[in-house]
Amino acid sequence: MQKELIEKNPILKHSIDFSLATIDYCETLDAAKKYIISKQLFRSATSMEAQNAESRADFIHKMKIAAKEADETQYWLTLCAYAKDYPSCDELSSRLVEIQRLLNSILNTSKKKNPISYLLSFLIF
What we know:
- This protein has 125 residues and is mainly α.
- The chain contains 6 helices and no strands.
- 80% of the residues lie in helices and 0% in strands.
């Protein structure tokens, strides 16, 4: 992926920055032998969705998947925040909230632009 493309796309930029920060956090968890949560957090936080969508409905569907992955990531970060002897994940949680806001904004805008095709996309699934 080209750096110019990443810099021009706010959600992609935030996602990549968040993924890199999550990798660092997961390495810290691994060093503390917190392998199970580290693995789950890594998977949900570094997934990539909504690239190369074939249609608006496909784009919306993929953005919903990205939102679900963000929710799962929030779950794992919440467990880390409440678990004994885990490093602070406050910074990651704050970054994730920003990503979730962006995803919700993108979803809301996409649904409003063409509500009929959005409704039809529900009939397909």
